Amino acid sequence: MDKHTIAFLLLDVAIVIAAARVGGMIARACRQPAVVGEIAAGIALGPSLLGLLPGNPDQWLFPADVRPLLGALAQIGLVLFMFIVGLELDMRLTRGRERAAASISACSIVLPFGLGAGLGLLLYPSHDTVDGMEIERLGMVLFMGVAMSITAFPVLARILTDRGMMRTVPGVFSLAAAAVDDILAWTLLAFIIAIIQGGSPLEVARIVGLTLVYAAVMFGVVRPLLAKLVAWRDRAGRLTPDILAVILIGLFLSSAATDVIGIHQIFGAFVFGAVMPKIGAEQLHREILERLEQASVLLLLPMFFVVTGLGVDLAGIGLSGLGQLLLVLVVAIAGKFIGAYVGARASAIPTRQSAAIAVLMNTRGLTELVILAAGRELGVLSDELFAMLVVMALVTTILTEPLLRLVYPDRVVASDIAAAERRALAVATAPRVMVVLRDPGGTVADLRARHRRMLDCTTGYDVVLAGVLTTPDRARTTLEVGAPVVPDFAALASAVERLNELGASLTGAGSVSVLCRFSADPVADVDAMSENASADIIVIDSSDRELGKSLHSAPVAVVDENAAEGVGPGRSTITCVVTDTRSGRTAALVAAGLALYGSRSLAVVASGSRRRWLSDLEPIAGQSVSVSVVDPRRHRDDAAAFTVRAADDTGESPAPVTVVDNTGTSEESLGDRIAGLYTAREAPRDPAASEPVENTSSPNIGTSSERH
């Protein structure tokens, strides 16, 4: 080893990191995944660009004795990347859509594989040697087929995150299909590598047999042991160095095992990621990704891009090879698009959504480069064909985002999200109450205990349980390796499961539906869910009082879970602050239903005719509910009938439930003096204003309906 080898290695590492970061920034500025720019930067440092300059600077900048060291770093980066691909493989993403996911995935593999194999036969005479050695025809044909069949799950998930498409039909089904695609494609590749490496049927059988034993050990023994990591992490409260060390030790041992077997180390990394615990492990996954990003994205993966780029000479394709390159692009794009489109249409997915799925399944990104690197290492791809396939990987990934915007524009995304939420709702036969639960974690029993009063408000109504999950701080935790949508999607699925269980326990409610969103803007998202649900009233916790003041889609009931129970013996008061409008009267009627089913007193703070308000509320007066009405503009004059006091000005316990109608009014006009900051307590009543009105008819408020 030359005495300057280490110095050159350190210099090369610095240059590669700088080039990768600049390339990634340029790609993001062009609304492309960062990996596109990083791959392009790696190619630029090789003979395709740097090598065209006088003196071949790529040769002295990356000398021959340094390249093996860069290659070793690249292999470690590949192992970490494939572990992340396996870690993100969560088959819960396919739950409820298994048949469609299988149909899309199978069609998007079978057709491209067949076309790719045919293309391999066609191109074989032009690319039948590598370094003077003849390439085995079968190996090249099979490898071309699998190279055309790959979908880059991480890049696909990144695009879904950036476009906000996680809850759309194309987002849900493409993510599920890509998960199935991962299993099928990597299994197929392992089998093909076994055929190429084995040579004789006996050796192939040995490799396949050892692979099956390895898989049985990983899923039958290692997987249950790794499940204990979740409890370990929860006890520690974070991902400790010891936990990460155990994961890395297992990862590298698994990769070494598959390399010894003869199916390449990338499979050991992928399988180890796949057997990592998934249920309840969302936070563990995010912390693993955050830790590995620092080593993988910044240091190791750029080495892989450069090692790949050093082997790509675009000038070597030549004019004669442009026709072959065009054929490669046509087969890759058309095969994947048509296959995925046919699979989606066969599952009765509408035309536009099927086209969007087909576009998404066409992205290949870094995953394709991993496949191509394995093919070159196996000696089944010539330099020219390798360069063509690298260009294909870049072009198909670059085309995904603009084609998706053309096929599935933002307005359609918003429309489909709203339509999906409306379809999720049960048929309403009574006024609809939307209960907003922020970050609904813990067990169902915990949720019931924390939100007892809010859930009591659902008795007699059709209910929508709206889970609003806090969007992770992307400025702090945006991940370039791996896709944050996957742990987020798993967290969303877990929240939906808990809310469904909670809904099943609401025996006093009518129909129960569940909606759930990640939200960086809770006001906009809660208002959107309320409009999609056609909610008559929104129920929120008092800790979200500021949120409630900003909602305008429906009247808001602010529930204080910590308020004292009574303003009178054995009962509590519901305070309703409303305007004299149609939505205000709706709010008062819903508040009346809450009072009726909770055996509470009802205090309505409203302008307009007191007699008319009492007439509207007549059906519930006398049903174990006392009703009082006060005009907020004259509340001082009506102190004998009713006292309204600011929460900050009184030591009295606040009312357990305050209903506020913000619809059609500005926050300033309703004012902090009324909108939820005022609480009420009963005083000696003015008989003319607040005596219970005799009722001779049965109430028609909050009629219970059959659960759907």
Can you offer a commentary on this structure?
- It is built from 28 helices and 13 strands.
- Helix 14 crosses helix 17.
- The strands form 3 sheets. A 9-stranded mixed sheet has the order 5-4-3-6-7-12-8-9-10, sandwiched between helices. A two-stranded antiparallel sheet has the order 1-2.
- The protein is about 60% helix and about 10% strand.
- Helix 26 (about 610-615) links the parallel strand 9 (about 600-605) and strand 10 (about 625-630).
- The chain starts with a helix and ends in an 18-residue tail after the last helix.
- The protein has about 700 residues and is of the alpha/beta class.
Gross morphology is: elongated
How many helices? The count is: 28
- Total strands: the figure is 13
- The whole-angstrom Rg is 32 Å
Classify the beta-strand content into a percent band: 5-15%
Low-confidence stretches: 474-484, 566-571, 635-654, 665-708
Main beta sheet: 9 strands, mixed
Side by side, the strands of the main sheet go: 5-4-3-6-7-12-8-9-10
